[in-house]
Recover the amino acids of this structure.
């Protein structure tokens, strides 16, 4: 059985698909389109999960093939290899193309495309399979794929929220390439792009108005790629532009992204704006942050109480205390008593975090053995379905100040 069938792709791209599929790939030339070879592969019971139409296939012909594949082999996803722009994405989607892959796609890009195609193929085949009453009683339902919307929030600014959000997103993206998008929901003064040393062409307001607001394929072209494989939706260029983003816009955006990505990390503005509350309504996980000072601890308690009263604390709740140290006169036991809950992660004040912020290279991108990096990695491992490193999980929280 071939998982991937490439037609008209160059040798390097075909080889990358062969490697990520574990050798379950077949490469054909464009002559397969004329002699019936393609149809022969698609009508088999074990049709490939993914059909890749390379640069040697004319785009108009590729779009026509995609429409035919949708009828003949609905469990096969079609990917076209081309340099994409929003207009091409729109035309491709209408033709039935599932993804547009750059001719310079990396192995991580290829793996992400194959993962999405495999998941779709399995879902469609399961939906089309005949089900007998006996099998319904005998078999347990398959577990749903892990989909997580992780909202990073804080009652006030200056607690390192964006640093934690960007490192968390980078850690998840590194553990599972192509799986993660981060959304900067601080629409007025968000600095996710700055924290990642990116200069985005498109920002949040661009994605909630126009074609991207209704089309997942176009939306993906508005995301800014990061070297780690993370997808980034940057905040607005100006406070005035950010004011045009509504709670309804955010709701639709997060619903769309959560269908397209396994992990959606949302960096919010300080406090509880309408946009933050909308994100929390969709959250599977909340990373709630405070700092090791009296206002920070009390603010953490107040925000946790309000969210509990509003029933907006999801099942995955992670309390994080940042900038911990022994010089502030606060004991950890007193802090937890004030907050009314145990802390899940304590991050110490460390120069490595400041250097990472100023250089735009997150700690989990460059790696390191400092306590902040280890603490952030433990947060990633709380959210990932398997450890992001070959080692076992880190202890529950005590990474903090000594």
């Amino acid at each position: 059985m071939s998982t991937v069938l490439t037609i008209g792709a160059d040798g390097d791209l075909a080889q990358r698909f062969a490697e990520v599929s574990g050798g379950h790939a077949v490469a054909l030339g464009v002559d397969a389109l004329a002699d019936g070879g393609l149809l022969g592969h698609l009508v088999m019971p074990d049709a490939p999960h993914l059909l890749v139409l390379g640069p040697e296939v004319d785009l108009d012909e590729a779009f026509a093939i995609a429409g035919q594949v949708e009828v003949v082999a609905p469990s096969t996803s079609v990917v076209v290899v081309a340099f994409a722009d929003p207009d091409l994405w729109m035309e491709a989607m209408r033709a039935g193309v599932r993804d547009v892959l750059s001719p310079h796609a990396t192995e991580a890009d290829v793996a992400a495309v194959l993962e999405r195609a495999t998941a779709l193929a399995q879902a469609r085949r399961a939906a089309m399979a005949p089900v007998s009453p006996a099998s319904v009683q005998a078999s347990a339902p398959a577990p749903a794929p892990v989909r997580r919307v992780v909202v990073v929030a804080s009652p006030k600014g200056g607690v390192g929220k964006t640093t934690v959000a960007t490192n968390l997103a980078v850690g998840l993206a590194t553990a599972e390439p192509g799986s993660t998008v981060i959304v900067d929901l601080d629409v007025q003064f968000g600095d996710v792009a700055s924290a990642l040393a990116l200069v985005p062409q498109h920002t949040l307001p661009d994605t909630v108005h126009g074609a991207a607001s209704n089309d997942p394929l176009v939306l993906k072209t508005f995301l800014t790629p990061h070297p780690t494989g993370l997808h980034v939706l940057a905040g607005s260029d100006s406070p005035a532009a950010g004011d045009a983003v509504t709670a309804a816009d955010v709701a639709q955006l997060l619903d769309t992204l959560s269908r397209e990505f396994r992990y959606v990390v949302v960096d919010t503005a300080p406090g509880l704006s309408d946009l933050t509350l909308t994100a929390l309504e969709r959250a599977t996980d909340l990373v709630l942050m405070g700092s090791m000072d009296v206002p920070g601890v009390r603010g953490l308690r107040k925000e946790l109480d309000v969210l509990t009263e509003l029933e907006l604390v999801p099942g995955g709740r992670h309390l994080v205390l940042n900038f911990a140290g022994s010089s502030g006169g606060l004991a950890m036991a007193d802090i937890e008593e004030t907050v009314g809950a145990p802390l899940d992660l304590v991050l110490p004040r460390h120069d490595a975090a400041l250097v990472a912020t100023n250089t735009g290279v997150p700690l989990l991108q460059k790696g390191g053995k400092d306590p902040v990096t280890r603490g952030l990695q433990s947060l990633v491992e709380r959210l990932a379905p398997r450890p992001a490193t070959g080692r076992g999980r880190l202890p529950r929280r005590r990474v903090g100040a000594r």
